[in-house]
Each structure stands twice: as structure tokens, then as C-alpha cells.
TrEMBL record:
<dbReference type="InterPro" id="IPR020846">
    <property type="entry name" value="MFS_dom"/>
</dbReference>
<feature type="transmembrane region" description="Helical">
    <location>
        <begin position="128"/>
        <end position="145"/>
    </location>
</feature>
<dbReference type="GO" id="GO:0005886">
    <property type="term" value="C:plasma membrane"/>
</dbReference>
<keyword id="KW-0812">Transmembrane</keyword>
<feature type="compositionally biased region" description="Polar residues">
    <location>
        <begin position="1"/>
        <end position="15"/>
    </location>
</feature>
<feature type="domain" description="Major facilitator superfamily (MFS) profile">
    <location>
        <begin position="64"/>
        <end position="210"/>
    </location>
</feature>
<feature type="transmembrane region" description="Helical">
    <location>
        <begin position="151"/>
        <end position="174"/>
    </location>
</feature>
<feature type="transmembrane region" description="Helical">
    <location>
        <begin position="186"/>
        <end position="209"/>
    </location>
</feature>
<dbReference type="InterPro" id="IPR011701">
    <property type="entry name" value="MFS"/>
</dbReference>
<feature type="region of interest" description="Disordered">
    <location>
        <begin position="1"/>
        <end position="29"/>
    </location>
</feature>
<keyword id="KW-0472">Membrane</keyword>
<dbReference type="InterPro" id="IPR036259">
    <property type="entry name" value="MFS_trans_sf"/>
</dbReference>
<dbReference type="GO" id="GO:0015606">
    <property type="term" value="F:spermidine transmembrane transporter activity"/>
</dbReference>
<feature type="transmembrane region" description="Helical">
    <location>
        <begin position="95"/>
        <end position="116"/>
    </location>
</feature>
<keyword id="KW-1133">Transmembrane helix</keyword>
<protein>
    <recommendedName>
        <fullName>Major facilitator superfamily (MFS) profile domain-containing protein</fullName>
    </recommendedName>
</protein>
<dbReference type="Pfam" id="PF07690">
    <property type="entry name" value="MFS_1"/>
</dbReference>
């Protein structure tokens, strides 16, 4: 029950006598305490809610880690997988050695620009639509590279493919922070950090295939 402040108001009547009037007003601290109590109760319910990612089953969390790790791997794989086609670009499109590196350079340049676009979009529309949308669009642009008949088309499509595939790299850390409690983030973070380094090495494998 809120405590009451007694406020004295002195009024003079016609006979010169003083009357006292008591006015009861609730203290602000009491109301604030009730609001804080309600807020604390709501916070406690969310901490115990099974829909909270912190409370997801382990298999769901593993799926999250595998998803972002595979996205990081394929993104870095796209950097070097086109290197074996360097001489083929020169022969098929009649370009010099320096120009033939342009599809690779544009892809890497787009990887730097992708987080600038993908990060804010994930905060606006959620991470799941951005993961799915970037994977679909990036795959479509990559398919277009394989079907292109001009060097210009190859360069343009490679740029947009890198722009799309860069998005998971920008929002993966946020996914880990929202899925795992601070004490459990070491292993998933290590897996995510290591997978991008595998892509460039495996991307060179086609050179060894006769």
C-alpha cells in the first residue's frame, strides 16, 4: 500500500480561526517501485520462455552454427574457386592477364560492401529472411556467371554474387550472441571463425584435377 504524504493547508475563516486540511497524495517512489516489479516479472518470464533462443534445445543451436559456418565457407570458397579459370578468361574473351583478374577482384570488393547493406537489413526485417534471401540471390548470380557469354556479364554478376554472399559474414556474430549465453559462445565462435579460412584452400583443388 502506497504511503501517504500529509500536506497541511492553513486557511483563515472570518472569525480569525485557522482550519487545517489534509490532502493525501501517493509518493512517486511507491508507483515507480510497482512498475519496476512488473517489469522484473516480465523479464523473468522471458528468461524462462522456451521461445527464447537461449533456451532452445542443443540440436537447434547446432543447426544454427552449421548454417552460419557453411555460409561462411561457401562465401570464402567463391574467392579462389575462379582462379583456375584465369587463363581460360584470357583465351575465351581475349583479355589481358591483368583484366582477367577482375572477376576475382570485384568479388572481394563486394565482400567489403555487403555488410554495409546486409547488417541494417537484418535489424529491420530479421536475420532469417536475410540469410535465405542472400543465399538464393547469391546462388542465382553465381549460376549466371557460369551461363554468361561476355566478360562484362561475368564481372557484373560476380560483383553482385559477392555482395549477397557477404551478408552472412556480417550478421553471423549477432546470431551467435542471440543463440548462446556468454559462457557458451567460445566453441561456436571458434567454428565460425575457422570455416572462412578453409574456403580459399579448398577452392584451389580444381587446379590439381587433370
Amino acid at each position: 500500500m502506497a504511503r501517504l504524504n500529509i500536506q497541511q493547508h492553513n486557511n483563515s475563516n472570518r472569525g480569525g480561526k485557522t482550519l487545517s486540511k489534509e490532502v493525501a497524495t501517493p509518493e512517486p517512489e511507491a508507483v515507480l517501485g510497482e512498475e519496476e516489479a512488473l517489469g522484473g516479472q516480465e523479464t523473468w518470464k522471458w528468461d524462462a520462455d522456451p521461445n527464447n533462443p537461449y533456451n532452445w534445445p542443443t540440436k537447434w543451436k547446432v543447426q544454427q552454427v552449421l548454417m552460419i559456418a557453411s555460409a561462411a565457407f561457401t562465401t570464402s570458397l567463391g574467392v579462389s574457386i575462379l582462379s583456375p579459370a584465369h587463363s581460360q578468361f584470357m583465351e575465351e574473351f581475349g583479355v589481358g592477364s591483368t583484366v582477367a583478374i577482375l572477376p576475382l577482384s570485384l568479388y572481394v570488393f563486394a565482400l567489403a560492401l555487403g555488410p554495409v547493406v546486409g547488417g541494417p537489413l537484418s535489424e529491420t526485417f530479421g536475420r532469417y529472411p536475410i540469410y535465405i534471401g542472400s543465399a538464393i540471390l547469391g546462388s542465382a548470380f553465381t549460376l549466371g556467371v557460369g551461363l554468361s557469354n561476355t566478360f562484362t556479364a561475368v564481372c557484373v554478376l560476380r560483383f553482385f554474387a559477392g555482395l549477397c554472399f557477404a551478408t552472412p559474414l556480417a550478421i553471423a556474430a549477432g546470431t551467435i550472441n542471440e543463440t548462446f549465453r556468454p559462457a557458451s559462445r567460445a566453441i561456436p565462435s571458434t567454428i565460425f571463425i575457422l570455416t572462412p579460412f578453409l574456403g580459399p584452400g579448398i577452392g584451389q583443388v580444381p587446379i590439381l584435377i587433370p
